[in-house]
Amino acid sequence: MEQLAQLIVLTLAAGTPLVYAALGELVVEKSGVLNLGVEGMMVVGAVTSFIVAATTHSPWLGVAAGIAAGTALSLIFGVLTLSLMANQVASGLALSLFGIGLSAFVGLNYVSVVIAPITPLSIPALSDLPVMGKLLFGHNPLVYLSLVLFLAIHMFLNRTRAGLIVRAVGESPQSAHAIGLPVARIRYCAVMFGGACAGLGGAYMAIAYTPMWVEGMTAGRGWIALALVVFASWKPWRILAGAYLFGGVTLAQFQAQGFGVDIPSQLLSMLPYLATIVVLAIISRDAAAVRLNAPASLGRPFHPDT
Amino acid sequence: MLKLEARPEPSRIAGWLSPLLAAAATLVVGFILFTALGKDPWVAFHAFFVKPVSTRYGVGELLLKATPLMLIAVGLAAGYRANVWNIGAEGQLTMGAIFGGGVALLLQDSTSALVLPAMMVAGVAGGMFWAAFPAWLRTRWNASEILTSLMLVYVATLTLSLLVHGAWRDPEGFNFPQSKMFGEAALLPILLAETRLNIALPIALAVVALAWLFMRRSLAGFQMRVAGLAPAAANYAGISAHRTVWLGMLIGGACAGLAGVGEVAGPIGQLLPSVSPGYGFAAIIVAFVGRLHPLGIVFASLLMSLLYLGGESAQINLAMPSAVTGLFQGTLLFFLLAADVFINYRLRFVRWSRRAAHA
Fold first, then answer.
1. Burial letters for B54-87: b for 16+ Cβ neighbours within 10 Å, e otherwise?
2. Do A281 and B324 touch (CB under 8 A)?
3. What is the value of pTM for the model shown?
4. N or C: which terminus of chain A carries fewer CB neighbours within 10 A?
């Protein structure tokens, strides 16, 4: 029982970067924009937060810096695709390549630096309760924050007028423009929110989960997050489920070694990527359902003249 | 007040000017970056762009590194023209290196002239094999080839790591994760004395020419271009969307696989845990900067190769991290995408009063 609780805690911890990144991308895609730069924004968020945490000795300042860095990077993407009507696929790819290059460049002197991480909660008495103590009070503060974010996004998209407007812009920017909604401005906000979330996901990895900086440490989680949005049929609660599923798969590597199973580590490291492919294929199988669930204008640039 | 206005027709001139504009803007950013890092920008520019190619060996390196870039980019461009977004060329390159390298290890002691051709065929097959998964997943399962091809990059890299750490590790290699050195017959002959430049370059140029013929002069190439420009029209004309995806992916995979063989049979000469400094990703930028056109891609690959050499030179001469290469690559692509706005739009000056009247 105690071990099961521990496993659940670990799974949540492993899935949380995906929760952040995928929830952010969900809002972006709901507004009709496809940002393939999640990986780049995550890794830059990770390196920035780590550097700031290492120099200021304040992990929370690091988290704030990671959010700011992700937002700043998303703004480049916003200018390219929303103001200059650039191809969203190419711009997102560019953002990922740029982010990976930038993070390697600025993070070079921080590779073996040690920081004071954000550690899991430890409330006297409560966290020490058998089983439930761990499950309810033993997570990292940033894990709780991701759950708050999930609830907030769920409520925002489904229960508020502003959420309805974002969805309207994603379904038909022409109609939204016709009734006087500022399409570009709304999409800018969504893109920046996505950047902030990706940066936060990266910061969580560098400051709470790992905690260290290694070049390319996000290891494709940004791309998995993109797949998760499709997997989730653009529904927040399914993102949560998917993220923890993948978190569990990532854990398999360490768990198998713990149980003394003799499988080469490379094969286990492949699991999350192979699982992504399989899950993506199964979910995408029904083309009509994907079209129905996806925001109708996803990936198409919008200019009032055209 | 400046306003973007849609052009009635895309401008061809803007299309070719945009890479030049982007390269110039990247240089300006480089100037600012070097200055900000406390380096004399002119000294830095010299070290980055002139010094690496001021020797015979340097020119050889420039062409050597441009070879895989142009090869992969021209293959990717065929797919991109048809809206097939293969971004997993790095994985297809790795798989090509595994297949080609496997043949080399199998024929370790052979001196036959057929070893190299066999490796190339195996490498092409390996790249196509790896590209076939995204194609199949897209056509049969409707899964985005962007995500699946990228996921397979990680799987391919891990496969290579598994092999050089395990079954294919050199027993006399002091436990380093590397294979045996390939036999003499499995190495590409040097083209230019005193350099590492090998015959992969003429092979790549031939492939570029073939790609031009295919896209411009063949029916299948024409159909792919139509499918990219006007999917609805292509569908109406009975052009099979599935075939377009398969062709686009397989051409990209074949070229990347061949590039992988070129690396392991060329400058590397054995299998290592990593056989490419991100050529598969840099080639995406090369394809765009080269306007998806074979000739443009050749020039763009030289530029990108210079960025790689400049990064290495900056590390030695300026004590700057070579990661600056990736930074420049990304910046170049950003500026290119930004400058591309002028292909479909033009800037118009709009007076405030008129705009107010509109609103």
1. eeebbbbbbbbbbbbbbbbbbbbbbbbbbbbbbb
2. no
3. 0.90
4. N
